[in-house]
Design brief:
The protein is an alpha/beta fold and about 190 residues long. It has a single domain, classed as Alpha/Beta hydrolase fold, catalytic domain (Rossmann fold, 3-Layer(aba) Sandwich), CATH 3.40.50.1820. The chain is built from seven helices and six strands. The protein has a six-stranded parallel β-sheet with strand order 2-1-3-4-5-6, sandwiched between helices. Helix 1 links the parallel strand 1 and strand 2. It is globular. The two termini are about 15 Å apart.
């Protein structure tokens, strides 16, 4: 049975946004589903989130599908960057993922996000660790500038880009609790 590991974003949890819906729907598709609750979700840190994800995943499998939301995408990419040569997953799906570009943050939020933006992330090292990448963006995301991040993921990861209309940051606060495109991509 293939595993799907869904990684929530900053201030998220396994019980928020589209996570509960995705878990239920993907289980129906006969996947083994892991949706960990990352530690200290309101103050995400690379040095805690990435090792925590590594512990949850254990040994990667070539049939694994990793789905991240927002800061969860950064966590997945950094986890993949740390893998030894020859280890890979099948697919990585990045929902509202960001490379070096974020916008619309308060001063306090910027302080929390800045270490993620400043810490190097070598996407050339990430790319060999997955058979394919898909990046899903919204055309009205208040935090993730579409064109800048799209370009990074297309050029560096060869990601297939999907742009959804009016989905904001794909979160509960914007009324988004389902993401049907995920089911099409994971099939």
């Amino acid at each position: 049975m293939s595993r799907v590991i869904i990684v929530h974003g900053w201030s998220g949890s396994s019980q928020r946004d589209f996570m509960p819906w995705a878990k239920k729907e993907l289980k129906k598709m006969r996947y083994e589903i892991l949706v960990p609750d990352l530690p200290d979700t309101d103050n995400p840190k690379i040095e805690t989130w990435v090792p925590y994800l590594a512990q949850v995943i254990g040994e990667v499998r070539e049939s694994d599908i990793l789905i991240g939301h927002s800061m969860g995408c950064q966590t997945i990419l950094r986890f993949l960057e740390s893998l030894p040569s020859g280890k890979k997953v099948d697919k990585v799906i990045l929902v509202a993922g960001f490379g070096p570009y974020l916008k619309g943050l308060t001063k306090e939020e910027q302080q929390i996000a800045q270490p993620w933006l400043d810490a190097s992330l070598d996407l050339d090292k990430v790319k060999p660790h997955a058979n394919s990448f898909v990046a899903i963006f919204s055309d009205n995301d208040p935090y993730v500038p579409l064109e800048e991040n799209r370009k990074v993921f297309e050029e560096k990861l060869g990601a297939k880009i999907i742009v959804e209309h009016n989905m904001s940051h794909f979160n509960e606060g914007a009324g988004i609790t389902k993401l049907p495109v995920l089911l099409e991509i994971t099939e």
